[in-house]
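STRUCTURE:
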């Protein structure tokens, strides 16, 4: 049903409705109420793209798109319905078949883990993910700037948490350079990080980071690999889901070269529950989505939004979607009626189709389809019966999933988490060095204080010893003085004693008499018997000597 330049979608208006591969990168919208056949439509388009050698990525919100990896079976309850539809639209070569698939899961439970680093995510998407206000986003941006400037890798949430704490410690310095960094804002971001951890976001950040080339593979038969993301658990954290898918688009845009309009897309990206990307999204994020969708076309990537209500897609983005498949809508409420009217106005008119009426009358597996023609213009809308899928409708079993994960081309490349040296470790090391330096400085200060105290104590003891020696000397001098005084007093007392005076007087008398006798004898011996001056002198000398001798006794 195809010539290699297009893929068969279904039959409408008595002709085959084909999607031109060269225009498949012009993006698309698949919309419709729940239970109207959107999943089967997605399945059929992905199967045909894979057969044409185009890799695809699809978020499996309900779990049933994992059936793309396995062939359908004629024993299923849908077989008769699909066989009848294939006959009705003339799909003669319809048979069951599988597709080469790679299974992924952010949490690493139902497929290979998908990780990226905090640095690759960037502050804008992280701010969206953590629901930060403008001020907090500014502080987050400052943290990224400081990390880049100082060569600190922010790979996971622990790194970001350490970097934020580091910025809080340097708040005064950073405020002067980059603007206000308040500890209150840092604290608010840290609390948002805790909430992100509680939602399982920690599993998404780290290494090894996803290599986009693993999404762009073909098998040995030339079929494009179908990358299926298990998103059923991820849907419990809608902000993480939307941010992750937007990150993927951004990474594809940044990593792929410009190719213009290739003969077939490099990759087609199917974004289920697309309204989650736009709910409560700030203006800056909407502008980012619009920019990526508008520019990624020239990279050869087609983006297909899948949602229940077409008005969930902002006009600035919806205007970029050239290929449209609209399943039935219910017009029970004013909003539903507005959606029907809006959807009808987006199609190129066809005189034979009353779009507004048909949207509410479409049966399961039927859709209003308008695809870009080879010249790039939209084809008139046709009421189309969508072709049946070749693969299984419904989820694969856990055993089948395990076998697929173990045997696909990715292998164990992403299965083991790598924790290399990054901001957390470097900042911890710096903190340890600073603590050691502070401890060393404190120890040195304490040693200096101890030495000074010892020196002061030694000086005090020396002074005290000196004072004691002086006191001892003074006491010795005083004792000597007292002894001398006592001696003199004793001598005076002795001198004043009547007995001593009598003895002294007797001694003097004796010495005087003896002196005169000796002197006389000496004088006679020297001068003879003559008397005169010489004899008187000699006699006086002798008496003095003898008096001194007696006195000394």
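SEQUENCE:
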């Amino acid at each position: 049903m195809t010539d290699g330049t297009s893929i068969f979608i279904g039959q409408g208006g008595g002709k085959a409705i084909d999607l031109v591969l060269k225009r498949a990168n012009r993006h698309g919208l698949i919309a419709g109420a729940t239970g109207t056949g959107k999943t089967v439509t997605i399945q059929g388009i992905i199967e045909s793209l894979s057969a044409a050698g185009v890799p695809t990525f699809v978020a499996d919100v309900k779990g049933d798109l994992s059936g793309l990896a396995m062939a359908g079976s004629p024993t299923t309850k849908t077989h008769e319905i699909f066989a009848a539809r294939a006959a009705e639209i003339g799909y003669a070569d319809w048979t069951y078949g599988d597709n080469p698939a790679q299974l992924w899961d952010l949490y690493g439970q139902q497929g290979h883990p998908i990780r990226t680093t905090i640095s690759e995510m960037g502050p804008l998407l992280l701010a969206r993910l953590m629901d930060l206000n403008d001020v907090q986003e500014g502080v987050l941006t400052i943290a990224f700037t400081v990390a880049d400037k100082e060569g600190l890798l922010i790979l996971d949430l622990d790194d970001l948490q350490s970097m934020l704490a580091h910025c809080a410690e340097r708040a005064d310095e950073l405020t002067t350079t980059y603007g206000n960094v308040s500890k209150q804002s840092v604290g608010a971001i840290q609390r948002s990080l805790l909430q992100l951890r509680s939602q399982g976001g920690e599993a998404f950040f780290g290494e090894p980071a996803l290599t986009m080339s693993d999404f762009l593979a073909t098998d040995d038969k030339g079929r494009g690999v179908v990358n299926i993301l298990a998103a059923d658990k991820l849907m419990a954290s809608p902000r993480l889901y939307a941010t992750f898918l937007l990150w993927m688009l951004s990474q594809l845009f940044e990593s792929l070269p410009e190719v213009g309009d290739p003969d077939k897309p490099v990759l087609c990206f199917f974004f289920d529950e697309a309204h989650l990307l736009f709910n409560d999204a700030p203006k800056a994020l909407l502008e980012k989505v619009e920019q990526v969708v508008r520019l990624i076309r020239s990279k050869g990537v087609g983006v297909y939004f899948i949602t229940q209500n077409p008005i969930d897609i902002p006009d600035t983005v919806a205007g970029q979607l050239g290929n449209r498949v609209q399943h039935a809508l219910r017009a029970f409420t004013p909003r539903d009626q507005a959606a029907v009217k809006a959807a009808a106005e987006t199609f190129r008119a066809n005189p034979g189709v009353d779009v507004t009426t048909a949207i509410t009358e479409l049966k399961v597996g039927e859709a209003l389809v308008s695809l870009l023609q080879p010249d790039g213009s939209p084809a008139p809308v046709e009421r189309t019966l969508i072709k049946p899928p070749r693969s299984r409708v419904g989820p694969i079993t856990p055993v089948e999933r395990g076998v697929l994960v173990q045997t696909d081309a990715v292998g164990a490349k992403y299965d083991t988490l790598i924790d290399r040296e990054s901001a957390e470790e470097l900042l911890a090391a710096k903190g340890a060095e600073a603590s050691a330096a502070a401890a060393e400085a404190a120890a040195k200060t304490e040693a200096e204080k101890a030495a000074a105290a010892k020196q002061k104590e030694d000086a005090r003891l020396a002074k005290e010893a000196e004072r004691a020696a002086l006191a001892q000397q003074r006491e010795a001098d005083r004792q000597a003085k007292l002894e001398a005084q006592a001696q003199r007093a004793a001598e005076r007392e002795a001198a004043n004693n009547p007995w001593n005076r009598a003895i002294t007087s007797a001694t003097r008398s004796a010495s005087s008499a003896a002196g005169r006798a000796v002197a006389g004898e000496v004088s006679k011996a020297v001068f003879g018997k003559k008397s005169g001056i010489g004899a008187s002198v000699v006699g006086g000398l002798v008496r003095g000597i003898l008096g001194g001798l007696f006195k000394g006794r």
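REMARK: The chain has a mean pLDDT of 86.
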